[in-house]
C-alpha cells in the first residue's frame, strides 16, 4: 500500500501546473522564432528557382539528427532504467515527465545566456531543440543515480537547478574557454554524472536495505532495459554529431563514434565474462558498459582521432565501465555512502572523464596539415593563431571547471532536496511503483502470490 505521506494528489499536480504556467509566461515574454523558422529571410537566395531558399533552411540538415537525439532521450534513457522489477512505470513515466519539463526550461536558460552576447530575445529553432535535449540528457543521467529513491516532485525540483547550472557550465566551456565538446563528454556526461552522484550522497539512506529485495531485476525487466540500450547504441553517432559543423566534421564524428561503439561492445562482453568466476555474462554490463564508447567519443569525435584511435578509446571505455560496475560501485556504496542505482559513474562519469582527456590530447596534435581548411570548423581559435598547447590547456581546464560546478552544485541541490516537503518514499517503499502509480489488479495479485510463495519457501527451509 502506498504511503499517504507522499500526498501525490496535491504535490505533483500543483508543481506541474505552477511550473508550466511560469514557462508559458516566460516563453510569451522572451521567446521568438529564429531566422530559419520566422520567415524573415525568404529573399536571401537570389536563385531563379523560388524554392531554392527552402532547402537552405537548417531544418533540413539538423532535424534528422534531432529526431535521433529525441528518441535517445525519451526511449533510450527511459527504457534503459526499466531493469528494476517493480519500478518500470516510474522509470519510463518519470523520465518522460522530467524530460518534458527540462527541455522547455533548458530552452530558456541556454537561450538567455546566448542572448547576453547577441542581445534581444531568445531565438528558437532546430538547433535550440537539439541543445535543449542535450541539457535534458544530463538531468536524466543524474536521475539514474537517484532512481527509485526520490519522488517526482524532488526530480522536478532538481531539474530546475541542474538545468540552470548546466547552462552556466556549458556557456563557460564553449563561449569563455572556447573548448570543443560537441558530443558532451564534459558538458553532458561528466556534469550529469558527478552532479547526480553528489546529490545521491547527500540523500544517503542508511536503511535502504529495507528495500533491497526490490532493487533487483527479473527476466522481462532486463529485456525491456536492453531495448533502451539498443536504441541508444544505434543513435549515438547522431547524438555526438548533431551540432557539429556540416560536412567533414559531422561525417567524421559519426564514423568515429560508430567504430568506438563497436569496439566497446566487444570489450564489454570480454571483460564481463572475465570478471565472473564462472565466465558468464552479466546483463548489467551489457546494458550499460557497451554504451561507454559513445560517451568517451563525445569530445574528440569531430577531431582527427582516426578510426584506429576511436577503436582504442572505445575498447578502453568498455573495460573501464565493466570494472567499475564489478569493483568500484560496491566500494562507493560501502565506503563513500554513494548509492548509485543505475551505476552512472561507470557509464557516464569515468568514460566522460576519459573522453575529456582524449579530447585534450587530440587537440594538442591539431595541425593545418591534418585538417586542411576543416581546421576552422573544429578549432577556429587554432586556425586564427592560438597555439595548440593553449587549446589543449583549455580542454583540460574545462574538465576541472565541469567537475567543480557539478560537485558543488550537486552538494547544494542535495541539501535542498533533503527538505521534508517533497513526499519522498520511505526506506521500505523505495523501488516500488505502487507508491505513485495505479497498478493493474492482476499485477497486484501476482505480486501477492509471489510474496506468499516466497514466505512459504522460507518457512520450509527454516523448518
How does this model look, in words?
This protein has 463 residues and is mainly α. The chain is 68% helix and 1% strand. The model has no long low-confidence stretch (mean pLDDT 91). It has a two-stranded parallel ribbon. Helix 2 runs antiparallel to helix 7, helix 3 packs across helix 4 and helix 8 packs across helix 11. It is globular. It has 17 helices and 2 strands. The chain has a single domain, classed as Ammonium transporter fold.
Main features:
463 residues, mainly alpha, Ammonium transporter fold, two-stranded parallel ribbon, 17 helices, 68% helix
Question: Short description, anyone?
Answer:
The chain is mainly α and 463 residues long. 68% of the residues lie in helices and 1% in strands. It starts with 7 loop residues before the first helix and ends with a helix.
Helix content: 55-70%
Mean pLDDT: 91
Q: How are the strands ordered across the major sheet?
A: 1-2
Count the beta strands: 2
Query: Can you tell me the number of structural domains?
Result: 1
Number of helices: 17
Rg, Å, rounded: 23 Å
CATH class division: Mainly Alpha
Tell me about the biggest sheet? 2 strands, parallel
Q: Which architecture would the CATH scheme give at its second level?
A: Orthogonal Bundle
Shape: globular
Q: Do you know the CATH topology?
A: Ammonium transporter fold
Helix/strand order: HEHHEHHHHHHHHHHHHHH
Strand content: under 5%
How far is the N terminus from the C terminus? 30 Å
> CATH superfamily membership, which one?
Ammonium transporter AmtB like domains
SS content category: mainly alpha
Low-confidence stretches: none
